[in-house]
Structures are given as structure tokens and as C-alpha cells.
């Protein structure tokens, strides 16, 4: 409504308003693009949450040759606040137990020998639920 009443008639006023119209239309188009990106991202997160389950050994991805793997040993209650990464991660629990939080309503409990892949840019966190947990994170891409 505002677009039709305020922006569309602007070119008929003067050169300055034509420039304003161009900027406004560009702003609307950029906002629409960002909404599309946000929608796609939301659907990707929801799909990941729906299929969240430990991987079997045969499902575990093969890490790239130069992959960086970090091993952590943490005590019960150790918390990793929710965050994202620019790469997908292979999350493998060696010993102990940990809960990986994928959203406020979705989490997965992993025990020694279990693993998951956390897709790049997917929000996640974790909390150790056993006396001690040893796990590794390997960057996949």
C-alpha cells in the first residue's frame, strides 16, 4: 500500500525523488532476497532437526586429508553455548556422554562410539552429561 501511494508516484515529482525511488525499490528487492535466504536457512535447520540421529559407523563421513581434528576432554556440566561454524563438523564421542542441542526443542544424546554431522552454519551447542566426556570435532569442508 505504501509503495503504491508514496514510491510509485515519486518519479513524476522531480529528479531527487526519482533517485529516492530507485534506492527504495532496491531496498525492497534486497529485503525480499534476504527473506528468501532466511526462509531457505530455516527450512534447512528444520529438516536437519527432523532427521537428527546418531550415525552408524558405516555412515560416518571420510574426513578430508588435511582436515583439522580437535579432541576435547570435558567434565560433567561443561557447556558449549549455541554457536555456528562456516564448515560442517563431524562430531564423534569417544567416551562418556554428551547432549548436542540443535534448537530449543530438539537435542540428541550421544554416547561413546556415536557421532553426528553438524552442517555448516547450523546453530548448535552441547552439555556433558557424564562424569567425563572425550569427543572430537573434525572440519569437513
TrEMBL record:
- InterPro entries assigned to the protein according to its UniProt record, in alphabetical order: RmlC-like_jellyroll, RmlC_Cupin_sf
Q: What is this protein's name?
A: Cupin 2 protein
Amino acid at each position: 500500500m505504501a509503495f503504491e501511494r508514496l514510491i510509485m508516484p515519486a518519479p513524476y515529482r522531480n529528479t531527487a525523488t526519482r533517485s529516492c525511488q530507485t534506492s527504495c525499490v532496491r531496498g525492497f528487492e534486497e529485503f525480499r532476497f534476504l527473506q528468501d535466504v532466511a526462509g531457505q536457512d530455516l527450512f534447512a535447520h528444520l529438516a536437519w532437526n527432523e532427521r537428527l540421529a546418531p550415525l552408524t559407523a558405516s555412515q560416518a563421513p571420510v574426513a578430508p586429508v588435511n582436515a583439522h581434528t580437535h579432541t576435547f576432554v570435558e567434565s560433567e556440566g561443561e557447556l558449549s553455548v549455541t554457536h555456528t561454524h562456516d564448515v560442517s563438523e563431524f562430531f564423534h564421542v569417544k567416551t562418556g556422554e554428551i547432549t548436542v542441542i540443535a534448537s530449543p526443542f530438539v537435542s540428541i544424546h550421544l554416547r561413546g562410539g556415536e557421532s553426528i554431522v553438524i552442517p555448516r552454519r547450523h546453530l548448535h551447542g552441547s552439555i556433558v552429561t557424564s562424569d567425563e566426556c572425550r569427543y572430537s570435532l573434525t572440519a569437513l569442508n
